[in-house]
Design goal:
Layout (H helix, E strand, L loop, with lengths): L1 E7 L2 E6 L10 E9 L2 H7 L13 E9 L11 E4 L2 E2 L5 H4 L11 E2 L11 E4 L1 H6 L2 E3 L6 H5 L1 H10 L10 E5 L3 H12 L4 E6 L2 H10 L5 E4 L5 H8 L5 E6 L5 H7 L2 E9 L14 H6 L3 E3 L6 H12 L9 E6 L3 H9 L7 E5 L1
Parallel strand pairs: 10-11, 10-13, 11-12, 13-14, 14-15, 16-17
Antiparallel strand pairs: 1-2, 3-4, 3-8, 3-17, 4-5, 5-9, 6-7
This protein binds zinc ion (2 copies).
Length: 348
């Protein structure tokens, strides 16, 4: 089979490898599609280390073979893959919140080979946890790959009462900002603003026709002044920080109305994650701050259902698809905002 193999940091080659054989309890998937994400980019460039040479964790696949003892999965069935695999023993895993596993979770595409290959093994531990999530026969492979990142946004927003939100502001117009916005829309938020420094990015989102109310350049508008005039001084119900810029947390807190919510969706640079913030704002205005770390089964099911029942239209989001042979080109297109890419998908 063909696979995109990391030879050393920053050096990837398309290689011919034997199709892996599923061991007891494993399931062999034919990869229908696997999307590139920002984390993959950091691994491919050598900035982030993983334990395996094949990455890719936003996967749609079809069962082609099963190992000894597997009875509930049959060749021909289609699934998407839950990335996170917990220890299975700690109190958080007992609640099926494997993304908060107290022993630290492992993940497909990080500790086990991922989806940038024609075939991949779903290991027994992941199969037993329920990481193969069924999808309808008519859901396209490309749309299937959106379920993983969308589930992370469902997870990050689950603390925020979107159903009653009048106005939600999202920092970051990349795919993650967009998916957060679409979850807010699907859950009933009335006005949704995307704020980004890049006008190219904002123009792309408008050109695609995404269902948001405002596309605001934070280069041209000071966020606090814009929000003040847009909300007649009250502030927004919720801010989602979907860009790895730690100052946006401090800026975002000042945009909230009383009892508002701020989600720190993006991880901050590990070398410099500390930020000075006026805690009295949180205290006196009764503000709520939330974290977001990957997702677990319940969020995958919600994300899948949003896409399947049309509450979220994902069709406009996949802007580019490439065969595995053009993996290098796909990586370049995904990394370059001027290419007009939002989500780039590999179809091995
Ligand atoms: Zn990802
Ligand atoms: Zn655990």
């Amino acid at each position: 089979m063909k696979a995109a193999v990391i030879l050393k940091p920053g050096v990837i080659a398309i290689q011919d490898l034997p199709i892996p054989t599923p061991g007891p309890g494993d399931v062999l998937l034919k990869v229908e599609a696997c999307a590139l994400c920002g984390t993959d980019q950091r691994v491919l460039s050598g900035e982030k280390h993983v334990d395996v040479p094949i990455v890719g964790h936003e996967i749609t696949g079809c069962v082609t073979a099963v190992g000894a003892g597997v009875t509930q999965f049959k060749p021909g069935e289609r699934y998407i893959v839950q990335t996170v695999v917990g220890c299975g023993e700690c109190p958080m895993c007992a609640l099926h919140r494997e993304n908060l596993c107290e022993k630290g979770f492992k993940a497909i595409g990080y500790q086990w080979n991922g989806g940038f290959a024609e075939y991949m093994i779903m290991p027994k531990k992941a199969v037993d946890q329920g990481c193969l999530i069924p999808i309808p026969q008519d859901l396209s492979p490309e749309l299937g790959t959106l379920i993983e990142p969308l589930s992370c946004c469902v997870n990050g927003m689950k603390y925020i009462p979107m159903e009653t939100a009048e106005h939600v502001l999202i920092f970051g117009g990349g795919i993650i900002g967009v998916l957060n916005g679409l979850v807010a829309r699907a859950r009933g938020a009335r006005r949704i603003t995307i704020m980004d420094v890049s006008t190219d990015r904002l123009n792309l989102l408008q050109k695609i026709g995404l269902p948001f109310d405002d596309f605001v350049s934070s280069r041209e508008h000071k966020p606090d002044e814009w929000v003040k005039s847009a909300t007649r001084g009250r502030g927004v119900d919720a801010v989602v920080v979907a860009a790895s810029v730690k100052q946006l947390v401090t800026v975002g807190i000042k945009l909230l109305k009383r009892s508002g919510h701020l989600s720190i969706f993006a991880g901050m640079p590990k070398s410099d994650p500390t930020e000075l913030t006026d805690l009295n704002l949180i205290h006196y205005l009764e503000l709520n701050l939330h974290g977001a770390n990957s997702s677990a089964l319940a969020e995958y099911l919600t994300a899948r259902d949003f896409l399947v029942n049309g509450k979220i239209d994902g069709r406009k989001l996949v802007t580019h698809t490439f065969p595995l042979a053009q993996f290098d080109e796909a990586v370049k297109v995904q990394a370059n905002p001027a290419s007009g890419s939002l989500k780039v998908v590999i179809k091995p």
